[in-house]
Amino acid sequence: MDQGVRRWRPRMGRVAVALLVAGATAVAGVTTQAQESAAEPVDSFYLPPAQIPHEPGAIVKTAPMTLLATPPTEKGWPGSAQHVMYTSRLQNGDPVAVTGTFIEPPGPWLGAGPRPTVVIAPGTSGQGDRCAMSKAFSAGMSVHTHPSLGVSANQELPSSAVWSELGARVLVTDYIGLGTPGIHTYANRIESAHAVLDGARAANKLAGAGPETPLVLWGYSQGGGATAAATEMQPDYAPELNLKGTWAGGPVADLVAILEQIDGALIGGAIGFAVNGMLARYPELQSAIDKVISPAGRDMLATLSDACIADLITQHPFLKTSSLTVDGRSLTEHLRELPEAAPVLAELRVGGLTPAAPVLITSGRNDDTVPYGQARALAEQWCDKGATVTFRTNELPPILPGTTIPNHFGPELMDGFGPDSAVTYLLERLADKPVTGCSFD
């Protein structure tokens, strides 16, 4: 067993306990923070200058970031953190500013080889600017009072804590359009991949490290789709990066399958995130949607464009898109049938390219949010192209189907941090332990 793996496993229990304490502390502070936030000015850091560099991954600006609700460890986690703005590319190639959180580790790298860079692609946080993950890093969550009282949690506290404890440098991207001007293009394969790969470039620049620095990508759900897309685009978009391996957990790979799965589920409103993102980049789809959506549906899409994931759960739970159309048929049905939608959904589907680096894909057989079938299909497509893919099935039985938390987030914790986990898989890739071909279990 690799030395880094042996050193990491005993630490996991301590980190897990600390994460629970940190989460409880953050929740306890919601009322006070909400009262204080009403008087806080808009954070100007998220506003890019009039001119930004055209080079992908260039640093636009940085600012110190204090990480408060974080687990204490013997190494003094979390180390040194910065709020960073870096350049990336829109789908059409135009430069765009993206923000994120960069964390230098508090101690030495415990794994094999040189200290690596880990880019974390967050799971779904929402579409409103206040949902940007970096806004929640300082206190464990951000609290907002407009348009109504709500919260946005730092979902990537566990992953960033574990990798920092191991001694890796970490960058957590906010994605394009979250925090910064413009719509967040939710689940857009191309722009998600750009934000992840350019985040790696930016992290290496901030650390004074070259492109030969070992790199791994970590993501689950929306983040799993982003890291999957980044991995298959890396050979062409960022060939200089030394990508060693990727975790694409519960990956959002096929929007058609996912939108049908969550329509009427607890977070059914996330369909609005996807539709808003598609309309922003494919204006030819707008007239087709206008013919089938009702005035109430237009209002809901506008509302969802400024919502966080917690808002969906508390204010719009179990949303059925049949309530948004003129004929009472679901919006997902219409998207399947609209001729204008077919090329859009095909272009946004992950799996058309071939990863050069090994990939671990995990999926819950009973995942009620990101369907198992489309995750396995992605693995099979890549295998057919000659990629190196490990596919693991999580057999957690159905628990409260349609409520997301047990059967979608449960596998994230089990597959990400449990025995034979994604952390272990990536440590082995960083140690250059051989892995070839494809395996399915």
Automatic annotation (TrEMBL):
Question: Which residues are the signal sequence here?
Answer: 1-28
**Superkingdom to which the source organism belongs:** Bacteria
Record-linked InterPro entries: AB_hydrolase_fold, Lipase_secreted
The record's SUPFAM superfamilies line, in alphabetical order, gives: alpha/beta-Hydrolases
Which keywords accompany this UniProt record? Signal
User: What's the protein called, per UniProt?
Assistant: Lipase family protein
Q: Which source organism?
A: Nocardia halotolerans
